[in-house]
Design brief:
Length: about 70
């Protein structure tokens, strides 16, 4: 799992920090930030809830699935 915050969209509502305080915090300006070292917080079940709670959709959570090898016609 990988977490990304679109800082251009974030309005600093703080819903992510309320939903998953072990992963999200707010920076000095009040905008969402990941707690250092928590960018791949696979052990926290509330990360997806934090993304859903964001009123502007600034948080994206993706699964790190292995990519298929490219097939070439050689």
């Amino acid at each position: 799992m990988h977490i990304d915050i679109d800082t251009d969209l974030c309005i600093g509502a703080g819903q992510c920090a309320l939903a998953a305080p072990a992963v999200f915090t707010q920076d000095d300006d009040g905008y969402s930030a990941l707690i250092p070292g928590r960018e791949d917080a696979t052990d926290n079940p509330m990360v997806r809830e934090a993304a859903r709670a964001c009123p502007v959709g600034a948080i994206t959570v993706t699964d790190d699935a292995p990519r298929a090898a490219a097939v070439t016609d050689d």
